[in-house]
Amino acid sequence: MERIFIDKDTATFTRKDLTLVDVVFRDGRSFEGLEPRRLFPVSDRSRYITLLDANGVEQAVIRDLSVLPEAERQIIEECLQEYYLVPKITRVMDYRERFDGITFFADTDHGPANIEIRTLTQGLKVIGEFRALIRDVNDNRYEIPDVTRLDKHSRQILARYI
Amino acid sequence: MKQKTICKTEQDDPASTQNAPLREAVSVTVNPPFRGQQYTANKQLTDEELQKLENTVPQTELLQFVVAGDLSLKNRYARSLLAVTDGHIYGFDENHHDGVKIFDFTQAGKASVKRYYGNALLVFAGQDEGKKTHFLRFSYREAPLFEAAAAYINSVADGGSREDAQTQIEIAFEKQFCVCPKCGRTLLRPGAPCMNCQTKNKVIKTLGRYVLPYKKLLAFCLLLSAVTTGVSLVPPYMTKTLVDDVLPNGSGRGLLTCVLVLLMTHVIHYGVGIIRSYYLKICGNKIVADLRNDVYKKAQQLPMRFYDTTSTGSIINRISGDTSTIQAFMLRVTQEVLVQLFMLVGIVIIMFGMNWQLTLLSLVPVPLVAIASRIFRKKIRAYYRRIWRHWAAVISVLTDTIPGIRVVKAFANERKGVEKFAARNKTWLKSNNRVARITSLYPNVVGLMMSCGSLLIWSVGGNEVIHNPEFISAGLLVSFISYTSMFYGPVNFFANFNDSYQSFLNAAERLMDIIDAEPENDFSGGWHPEKLVGKIEFKNVNFSFDRTQKTLSDVSFTIEPGDIVGIAGTTGAGKSTLVNLLMRYYDHYDGEILIDGIDIRKIDMTFYRSQIGYVQQEPMMFHDTIYQNIAYGCQGVTTEQVMQAADVANAHSFIARLPDGYDTVLGERGVGLSGGERQRLSIARAVLKDPAILFFDEATASVDSETEHLIQESIEKLIHGRTTLMIAHRLSTLRKANKIIVVDKGKILEMGTPEELMALKGKYYKLIQIQTMSDELQKTKKEERFD
Domain limits of chain B? Predict the structure, then answer.
């Protein structure tokens, strides 16, 4: 089956639920209750957004969010915002370390959080030079977009691990 | 109704970190009863929350349980609350109208937890699938409890027993509270020791276990050390006699005596030194060999879960590299630390005896050295950890590409591999260079400080010798200077000792990670019958690898002894997971798996696995002879038994054709044999084991149809009279099965005899049709080619 790509204005979206949209294509085809999901949630968040139906079957793929008309883009982004919670760490106040288990006491853009990771290899990944991704023991995700832009105290704490 | 309250104080709660003191330990406390009634809760409720409950819940209702969430509906960290009473469901969230939403059990509709990415939502479907309600949001941390709560609500709404539901929810709460009472960290299972709360002393204690057996030898060496140290203190003293008494008096006889005494001390010093050093080295080697054995043994017993999340490269590095670091350190400790300590104490005593004022003067740089050492220690530690991580990254390229060299070459990807390796090596080099900077700076700065110390003695002491010769003689000053330089030796040693101590501590920590990790449950002990009959039952089994996605949900089935069961389903449906659970690679599932009516987690593991023959899709061959590969895991088998097994597996004929026969040594991963030949060896392995139960995981997936026929034939010989589970993609392999289980998305879709399933015209029927179609297509293509 050919993959259907949604480009510039091939389709319109209506928000149906928290994370679901109804999609109507210009050629008349329509789908109800599709869930936009990132195909590259780590490396490319605004391109290749897949639209899955209730059975998890892909119905279409948005190639690039930025080329969509403003209103359509916003609908999809709101859905993604509800689906993906990856708080950005803005400050690391303190840490506690015993053996390989580390807890960071941090501030994020979603409020303060205690981030518990079991091992560095599993819990902390540095992507590129400055971007850090954290996955805690419960599989929650956090991100530091640019380690160098944190305050000195936070950087000092993180320097132990990155 | 007896109810338990399990809760933690809220320091662990992200929302409260601002006002609560950081780093404070979480303790298990009990929530005060609500209107005189106990209830189950996952967190200690604040006064404000209790007040809210007081105001909202009518007096006539009885509070059953409370689950505190950690996100608001708008995805911000905040406390939300799910309170369930015998009449209603209350959801407290600041985004609800008036801060609360109330449902009764019938009007809410089906409750479900939808897991998103890093957050999840409790949703009520509404009556007659009407309007959905987003009730509360929470992170993955609390999701399991909300899932249990949803199950409770659904079960009560469907008219199920409240008592049963309450028991279920309490089990869920208890499970969630596999937390360390000291630090609040999640544990692997209830009662498991907390890795987090073990202090550095634990490292010393654990490694101490390895030193103890050699304590006699070590004590002997200690004695020798005392002798060498004592003897080495003699020469400077002789210098004093020489300068003050012998040389000024011009006594030739005295000079000769002095020289002879010095010769004696040197001979004793170095002679005893040889013996001591030899025995200490032996001790160090033995200790580390023991340690390495233990770590390897432990690594063998670790559950698959550990290997799923830790790269094998890092484990190999720990066993080979880290034990070597510890060896180096052990040798250092056992050889030098004691000697240097003796020396230090001895010199200080003599120096004080000679002149206490000068001694104090020479001690001036010591605090400076100690401070410098502290600063250094803090800095270097992070660097060593980083170096190790970078080194593990280098190793992981090795472990990926060297064994997979065929794939690398096939994709002409050598250059990329080299680049990746070079890049990782460069990072390693960078951090190592940074350490080199610090490690070369520090000892030399310390050295400089110490040299300045001896200048201090020259100037002060020299002044005394010039103006006050009766107080300090020239001989005393000279011998004092010698003692001082000897004294700085051990000080310098201990200052640098940090260096190896730090890398030792890091290596030890990583080893302890393995030594202290939870092994597979009850590796020995447990129920041990003569032989298994082979009845397999799954009862409501739920399983998830990583808590995010259920790999199996509510799987129940029974297999009678001697049944030949085919498991069909698309890729990723959960077929292999069934076998993984049966093999007890993973023990953390919900529900029960019974063999002959006994929970498999209660059966002696070694015995249990010996009763199972497992033929995998890609059989693993060891770097050993064919004979040893077949006899792998079977002790005390005769040569003929092995040959017979090879016969059954249709392997004997091709082995006989090999020039080295059964003595053919296989390369790593069985290089030198075809896929089908390896598969037949692995079947022979299973035959030899004579198991009660057999698993075939896509055994014929990667061979041509002719070989498949040979393998099929051997499988048919093998499975006779044994309970057999066959996972197959190619349904033709399942023609011998008397029962088929069709798995889809972790659930059992269809189950029955092949005829029944064909009559059902469901998924199995569809799969068969698709396969027949493609088979026919292939056949026509072949025929066309022949034409």
Answer: 7-195, 198-515, 534-611+694-706+723-787, 613-690
Q: Which CATH superfamily is domain B613-690 in?
A: P-loop containing nucleotide triphosphate hydrolases (3.40.50.300)
The residue extents of the domains of chain A are 5-83, 89-159
Which pLDDT tens digit goes with each residue over B172-197?
A: 777 666 666 565 555 554 555 555 55
Interface check for A156 against chain B (CB to CB < 8 A): the answer is no
Tell me whether residues A18 and B121 touch, CB distance under 8 A: yes
A94 closest CB neighbour out of B22, B78, B118: B22
| B118/A140 Cβ within 8 A | yes
The residues, any chain, with a CB within 8 Å of residue B565's CB and separated by 6 or more, are B559, B723, B724, B725, B726, B737, B738, B739, B740, B741
Question: Torsions phi, psi of B468, nearest 5?
Answer: -140, 55
Among A84, A103, A119, whose Cβ lies nearest the Cβ of B118? A84
* Run of H or E including B185: none
Three-state secondary structure string covering B101-126 = EEEECCCCCCEEEEECECCEEEEECC
In tens, the pLDDT along B306-315 reads 777 666 777 7
Residue B5 pLDDT grade (very low, low, confident, very high; cuts 50, 70, 90): very low
Report how far residue B311's alpha carbon sits from residue B300's, in angstroms, rounded to the nearest whole number: 14
Residue A42 contacts B where some CB pair is shorter than 8 Å: no
Residue B124's DSSP bridge partners are B111, B133
A127 contacts chain B (CB < 8 A): no
**Mind telling me how many Å the CA of A68 is from chain B's nearest CA?**
24
In the chain, the amino acid numbered B786 is F
Structure tokens at B352: 């004080």
Query: What CATH number labels B534-611+694-706+723-787?
Result: 3.40.50.300
Residue B396, H or E segment: helix B365-401
Residues 67-106 of A with CB under 8 A from B: 81-87, 93-94, 96, 98-101, 103, 105
**Rounded to 5, what percent of chain B is helix, strand, coil?**
60, 15, 25
ipTM: 0.89
Please report the pLDDT score of residue B82 as a whole number: 93
Identical fold, B534-611+694-706+723-787 and B613-690: yes
Interface A-B, measured as beta-carbon pairs within 8 A, has a size of 114
pLDDT tens digits, chain A, 162 residues: what are they?
A: 578 888 888 888 999 888 899 999 888 888 988 999 999 888 888 889 999 988 888 889 999 999 999 999 999 999 999 999 999 999 999 988 765 568 899 999 999 998 988 777 668 888 877 889 998 888 899 999 998 899 999 988 887 777
Q: Is the whole model's pTM more than 0.80, yes or no?
A: no
Q: Are strands A21-25 and A30-38 parallel, antiparallel or unpaired?
A: antiparallel
The amino acid sitting at B681 is L
